[in-house]
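In this supplementary section we document a worked example of the pipeline. Step one takes a protein sequence of length 135 as its only input; no multiple sequence alignment statistics are reported here. Step two produces a three-dimensional model, which step three serialises into structure tokens for compact storage. The input and output of this example are shown verbatim.
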Amino acid sequence: MKLQRKRELKAQIPTASMSDIAFLLIIFFMTVTVFRKAKGLPVKLPHAKTTERILKQRDLAFIWISKNGKISVDDNIVPPEKVALLFRSKISENPALIVSLKADQNVKYRYVYKVMEALREANALRVVFATKKGE
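The serialised model returned by step three reads:
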């Protein structure tokens, strides 16, 4: 009696659904990812009759001034005397930088003035005052 030889089975990885799995993983991570927004300080913005939205977010740096005079630059509390130094380096990295100043509606003007002088000293002359649209 003659015995039949067993055929050798080659190990194979099915690649037909590989692209589907990769695509589903990309979609999953895109939906699960949480994008962090800048928080700054709690600030009540003043109202304005007309507002304009800035589209290029990468050219923006944010400064928050709370009603008691605390200054936050891109989510970091900064003393007023460090604002000029910080923005001098930011302007050297990105000359097209626009500073968005978000000052509380009840803040004393001397705090805003200190920040504006520091920005002028740092040659950050493109400043936008953030407001809420309304009355």
